[in-house]
Amino acid sequence: xxxxxxxxSILSADFVNLEAELRRIGGADxxxxxxxxxxxxxxxxxxxxxxxxxxxxxxxxxxxxxxxADPDRWAPAYAEAGxxxxxxxxxxxxxxxxxxxELRARGAKxxxxxxxxxxxxxxxxxxxxxDMLLIMTVEPGFGGQAFLDVTLPKxxxxxxxxxxxGLPVAIxxxxxxxxxxxxRAAEAGATVFVAGSAVYGTEDPNEAIARLRAAAAR
Length: 218
Ligand SMILES: O=C(CO)[C@@H](O)[C@H](O)COP(=O)(O)O
Prior knowledge:
The chain has 8 helices and 8 strands, in the order E-H-E-H-E-H-E-H-E-E-H-E-H-E-H-H. The protein is of the alpha/beta class.
């Protein structure tokens, strides 16, 4: 496999000690920051002021996943705060192409996420506008859920479309990624792996990252 990025999700980290928690994942490619608004998903986490502070102290780039309503209004500010990659949900965006262009114009990579029941096909023509597709492998909202194998065909179709296009679009998967499931997602064509409990639920997060990396490459 050419590329393998492991992005730990801070949803499973200790929110009272976030700076110290970030220092525990120096071996990661980026830190996945889950922004939830209790409207698009039934959970509430952090918003722009906290993400902007994390951005200032993080040893690795930020990969923000906005599980929020009206990303057209809120997402560009995350790019302005210096977040390296900003992902919005296709189901929530009114104008995904315009929004992706606004993110890129502010220096961020543009990602578009799809919930498990959202088909990829209506969005394939938008690939040239995106840097990443995030295929949710659980229903968004909570960490610690079981990987949904029914999402594997969609990962495969997305990866095939990206390969066919020749575009440098990453395929990210998020939810239930463990040493046991990561190989199936990688085999289907995923290239960026978000893992919360499989990293922060262990004694040594950097060791867990290394084990996930090895399992993805098997
Ligand atoms: O976006 C989400 C959940 O909505 C994820 O980023 C989870 O935080 C992943 O947690 P694990 O399933 O890896 O524990």
